[in-house]
Write a structure and sequence with these properties.
Elements lengths: L3 E4 L5 H12 L4 E3 L6 E5 L3 H11 L8 E3 L3 H7 E2 L3 H10 L4 E7 L6 H4 L4 E5 L4 H10 L3 E2 L14 H8 L5 E4 L10 E4 L6 E4 L5 H8 L7 H6 L18 E4 L3 H13 L4 E5 L10 E4 L5 H14 L7 E5 L7 H11 L8
Parallel strand pairs: 1-9, 2-9, 4-7, 6-10, 12-15, 13-14, 13-15
Antiparallel strand pairs: 2-3, 3-8, 4-8, 5-6, 6-7, 10-11
Helix pairs in contact: 1-6, 11-12
The structure holds threonylcarbamoyladenylate and magnesium ion.
Length: about 350
């Protein structure tokens, strides 16, 4: 299959017409959201949903997020919405928030929910995604548009790297804004629980709806996985990743030490660390949470175009979006830290 990548900024009617026609014909299409690129198919169509799992090589017990373009669509697919759920949707949609709700039986493909009685719903805040969803007026199941296990795509070209010749169309809206996936919160539980941290933070929820649980990656691993996707390896480049404190002297010592043992090193760190002379350097921008989130997946992905033996990545604190960044970084490192 030939894969077309079309540059869009929200005004090219033809690209949207083509995407809508492909989706209505049961095909899959990649599109940008404000978090990462998604690989979409109509969520009521079993065959389209099967194509999503097939193109990504994704395990079929890992349910997909359903994207909608308007509040009117919501009631068609979910029931028993709590007041807290409504408040969160009203405050944070469109935006980087996925709400786990009770699914209305018989409305969505059971392949989307992987047999659960709940579904994750989100209204993305990106002009291309919103325009596509509104023109289509159907719910769109869309996981991140990467090969399963790889870092999520934050640019159209990343989608092409992973899915070329497996999907017909990529709507390329340039780099996504936030860079890490949406926050997933389960609002069917007695105490709302964050299953995956993201751009909407614990602090932001608590201001609105009171206490919210946020188990760490390690705590989630110890219990039964609530978000089935959390048990799979994620975001990992080919070479092993080691976390390291964001300290120039420590990183310099690590580079010297690892090199003496015969390793080639890729360093992922803020701009100021570039002069430390790692074999490859991929930036976290100025090191702020905002820039680190925006650069993280591109940096991890770039490691695969090197022959580094080891990847060192500097960490950040867990306040605000730091929680989402550290969740992804810990997973890409399999929990490992650099040790002398
Ligand atoms: O930002 C995002 O959310 C991106 C863009 C494309 O919207 N999408 C995305 O989808 O990250 P995906 O499929 O890569 O991640 C979905 C996560 C998985 O961890 C999955 O297990 C969890 O949400 N999830 C989906 N439905 C669920 C459900 N009913 N109950 C619990 N977890 C669920
Ligand atoms: Mg994903």
């Amino acid at each position: 299959m030939e894969t077309k990548r079309v540059i869009v900024d929200g005004t090219e009617n033809l690209a949207f017409d083509e995407a809508v026609a492909l989706l209505k014909a049961g095909e899959v299409v990649a599109f940008p959201t404000e978090t990462v690129y998604g690989l979409g198919g109509i969520a009521t169509d079993d065959d389209a949903v099967s194509k999503i799992y097939g193109a990504k090589g994704r395990p079929s017990d890992n349910p997909l997020i359903v994207h909608i373009g308007s509040f009117e669509q919501l009631d068609r697919y979910v029931e028993d919405l709590s007041e807290k759920a409504k408040a969160c949707m009203k405050a944070f949609w469109p935006g980087p928030l996925t709400v786990i709700c009770k699914v209305k039986p018989g409305t969505l493909s059971t392949k989307v929910t992987a047999g659960l009685d709940t579904v994750g719903i989100r209204m993305p805040n990106h002009p291309v995604a919103l325009r596509l969803l509104r023109q289509l007026d159907e719910p769109v199941a869309a996981p991140s548009a990467n090969t399963s296990g790889k870092p999520s795509p934050t640019e159209g070209i990343h989608v092409e790297e992973d899915l070329k010749s497996r999907i017909p169309l990529i709507l390329d809206g340039g780099a996504t804004g936030i860079g890490v996936e949406s926050t997933v919160i389960d609002l069917t539980l007695e105490t709302p629980t964050i299953l995956r941290p993201g751009g909407i933070t614990k602090e932001m929820f608590e201001q609105l709806i009171g206490p919210v649980n946020e188990p760490t990656h390690i705590e989630q691993k110890a219990g039964a996985p609530k978000a089935p996707g959390m048990k799979y390896t994620h975001y990992a480049p080919n070479a092993p990743v080691y976390q390291i404190q964001c300290d120039e002297q420590l990183v310099q010592e690590a580079i010297t030490d690892l090199r003496a043992k015969g390793n080639k090193i890729a360093l992922l760190a803020p701009d100021a660390f570039q002069q430390l002379g790692a074999d490859w350097f991929f930036t976290f921008g100025d090191g702020s949470h905002e820039q680190m989130a925006a650069h993280l997946y591109d940096a991890l992905r770039s490691c695969n175009s090197t022959n580094a033996d080891i990847v060192l990545a500097t960490v950040t604190d867990r306040s605000g979006v730091g929680s989402a960044i550290m969740n992804r970084l810990e997973k890409s490192a399999g929990g490992h830290w650099y040790q002398k």
